Amino acid sequence: MSHKLAEFIRARREAVTPAMAGLPGGGRRRTPGLRREELAQLCDVSPTWLTWLEQGRPVSASSRMLARLAQVLQLSAAERGYLFDMADKADPEHGEAAGGGAASNELAAIVAAIEAPAYMLDRQWNAVAWNAQACALFAGWLDAPQAGDETCKQLPNLLHFMFLSPQARTLIAGWPERAQRLVAEFRADVGRHADQAPLAGLIADLSGASVEFRQWWGAQQVLGRDGGLRRFQHPVQGLLNFNQVTLHLARQHEVKLVMLLPA
C-alpha cells in the first residue's frame, strides 16, 4: 500500500466522529475522529493490520475489505473511487472504463459543433481542444493556439490558469471556494497516477508556486467533477451563470468534455 493511500485513510478516519459511526463519544481524544481501534472493530480487522495500513506498509487489502472500509468511513462516490484507485483494486460495484484513442482534430471538431462554451481536458488537465465561445469566456487561458497549430508550444493547463494567473481570480466568481473544490476534483481524477510523470511534476510545480494549491492538495479532500453552477465575472459581458456538464470519452476515458450551458 502506498503512503498516499495511507494518508488518505488516516485523514478520512479522523473526519468521522464516533457519533457518525454509531459509537459513544466519551473519554478524552486527541482528535474528534475515530480511534484506530474503533475503526478496526467496525471493519472487523485487527488494530495492528489497520495501523500497518495507515503507515503505508505492504499489507494486503482485498476489494471486499476496501468496500467495508469505504462504508464505515462514509465515503462519497468520488472518495470511494479514489480509495480503490489508490489501492489499485477494482471496485466490485463499478465496471472498468473503456480505453482507446482520439486524434486532436477529431476532438476539435466535437467542441466546435457545440453552441456553448466547451473544452476538453486530458489527465493533466491540459486543454486539448476548445471552441470560440470558450476562448471568449476564458481570456488568459484559452485564447492560446490550438493543439496542432505550429505556434502552439505548450497546452494551456487549467490548474496553471486557476492558481498562477491573476485573471482567474477576477474572472471566477467566488474564486477561493471554486479553486479549493477544483483541487479536490483533481485529486479524485488523477488517483494513484499522482506520483507518476508528468502529473508528479505538475503537482510539484503548483505546490511550489502557489500557497493555496499546496495547502489544499495536502488536505486530502476528494470530490467528483460532475458539474453544477459556474459563475463568472466577465470583464466585458458582466456576471455570467452556467450549468457545467462533464462527460468522458468512451474510447479515451481520461479525456473529459466540459460544456457550460446557459443557466
Automatic annotation (TrEMBL):
Pfam assignment, any one = MLTR_LBD
The source's domain of life comes to: Bacteria
Q: Which residues form the HTH cro/C1-type domain?
A: 8-80
Drop me one GO molecular function for this one: DNA binding
Q: Which CDD domains match?
A: HTH_XRE (cd00093)
| InterPro entries, alphabetized | Cro/C1-type_HTH, Lambda_DNA-bd_dom_sf, MLTR_LBD
Q: What is this protein called?
A: Helix-turn-helix protein domain-containing protein
